[in-house]
Amino acid sequence: MTLQESGKATKINLLDFKTTPMKAFHITWITFFLCFFGWFGIAPLMPVVREDLNLTKTQIGNIIIASVAITIFARLLFGWLCDKIGPRISYSVLLILGSIPVMCIGFSNSYETFLLFRLAIGVIGASFVITQYHTSVMFAPNVVGTANATAAGWGNMGGGATLIVMPLIFAAFVGAGYASAEAWRYSMVVPGAALFIMGFVYYFFTKDTPSGNITSRKAEAVAKDNSKEGNFWGVCKDYRVWTLFLAYGACFGIEITIDNIATLYFVDNFKLGIAEAGLIAGLFGMMNIFARALGGIFGDKAGKKFGLQGRIITLSAFLLLEGLGIIIFSNMSTLPWAIATMLIFALFLKMSNGATYSVVPFINKRAIGVVSGIVGAGGNVGAVLAGMLFTSEDLSYRESLFIIGVTVIVVSVISFLLSLSRRSAQEILSPEFHPDTLGVKESLAVTSLRKP
């Protein structure tokens, strides 16, 4: 493992479980992976819940929106908390408190109570921001995009694994003699207990930064060091943050929407059973094992050669291909082609996720948590808006997906325009091309350009 003087890792050694950066890397992606079991554990069981609670299509749409709506505010809050108290305590608090509604959703006996529990569970979605913050402060500029994308991607695999595993847990309870109406309730205790335990693991086995935990004195020093550009409102004035907000809404927002509706989509459109539909839907999430990391890798490579503009253009290209893929998927009426096109658009969607967070650490180094929180919240805003399409009784799921595909293409154009802005061009020299991340010739060239 190669470290900078600051202690940040300049390489990713997956077999390293001892150094502070890599220990945080492994624990944070595993934690984020488990968070998906709590956040979306109920999604593949919705056909059973729908029958048990007599839910309408509109009510299911509202439940989908609830699962991601509160995450908007949770991500803003926990992004701010990361800057103030560090990721270790922030994550521990989130995991322990978030486990409660996951385990208690089984007490729901009506649409209203189920909706409230689903809303509360949505807070767990803030786990993404803490994950990205933690890897951002642990890795050097030359690999931070790859580290962010890989940790988030492997964590996002939890979305796919959830769609596969939760029906199996449900089937195990049914096999043990419980009725379906009881089995889905007991099934949710499993992910809730896992999150509760992980809250203590995160507290005792990770550190806030490569140099140690953030103390109250350090936090005060950081607060004093923050300029106007480093505080929350200063970040909000940066149009680049809001462009990334839109971009993340067009990729991660669509991802969690698909996580919510995929099982229902294949059950209703292709007449599959819940286990078969869950397995196919799970393939969508399992693409994260490599696809999101690819987005970060391409982002880092483009960044080293073309600076921040290169990272943004890479993101724009992936978004364009994602939008085209969704449009094609929405028109597939045979199961094999539906699966194939789903995997194609999933590839570019998840690469867009990774490419977005290869840009985030370079927008404002003084407020990585706030930037991560705002951009992450964009993902949930996108999910809420997409979810509204699925509440309409006048639109089929296919028509809703087509509209989403067109919208993603529009956002890709907006993202591309960002790469042409003067401010982005100026960022090529800082902090992208830090002498520690380049060869001798490149470092000398950058140094000469920086001289007045």
UniProtKB/TrEMBL annotation:
SUPFAM superfamilies: MFS general substrate transporter. It comes from the Bacteria. Keywords: Cell membrane, Membrane, Nitrate assimilation, Transmembrane, Transmembrane helix, Transport. Signal peptide: none annotated. Residues 24-423 form the Major facilitator superfamily (MFS) profile domain. One of its GO terms (molecular function) is nitrate transmembrane transporter activity. It is a multi-pass membrane protein. GO terms for cellular component: plasma membrane. GO terms for biological process: nitrate assimilation. InterPro entries: MFS (IPR011701), MFS_dom (IPR020846), MFS_trans_sf (IPR036259), NO3_transporter (IPR044772), NO3_transporter_NarK/NarU-like (IPR004737). It is found in: Cell membrane; Membrane. Its main location: membrane. The chain crosses the membrane at residues 24-48, 60-77, 89-108, 115-134, 154-179, 186-205, 272-291, 312-329, 335-355, 367-389, 401-420. PROSITE patterns: MFS. Belongs to the major facilitator superfamily. Nitrate/nitrite porter (TC 2.A.1.8) family. This is Nitrate/nitrite transporter. It comes from Chryseosolibacter histidini.
